[in-house]
Amino acid sequence: MIIEKIEVLYGPNQWSDTRQKLIQMRLNLEELEQHPTNTIDGFLERLQSLIPTLYTHRCSPGVPGGFFERVKEGTWMGHVIEHIALEIQTLAGFDTGFGRTRETETLGTYNVVFSFIDEAVGIYAANASVDIADTLIKGNTYPLKEHITKMQLIGQPISQ
Description:
Blueprint: E1 2-10, E2 21-28, H1 43-50, H2 66-73, H3 77-91, E3 99-103, E4 109-115, H4 119-137, H5 144-154
Antiparallel strand pairs: 1-2, 2-4, 3-4
Helix pairs in contact: 3-4, 4-5
């Protein structure tokens, strides 16, 4: 996967009239465009183990566990990255909740959009979410607590 661009959006935009702070990440899935989550052995289990709080994400089924249902049935990695970016911000104390992932005109390239509270934390979450997904795809472990702590530190006002 390649992050082609990260943009910070303030105020009304094409994604929302009411969400005032959004990250828009242009993400090229490369070969993962041909591999939805249900074709990646053990991915769901590794994701559930690393970030069990994703269970609260209702997603399109509209019920707790809905996001994990989507991962089990098969969804695209851009969608997963959207949810990871939201949840790791929440775990760091920056409770967010709005996200959208939409395919672009370029096959395999998506706009992954999610809300943020602190701009630096939002940008960090964009990069970290791709690293997390990539690590889990490969079957490796990810030092999530270290990155949560880092987001907490970069999100604090300088005066603290």
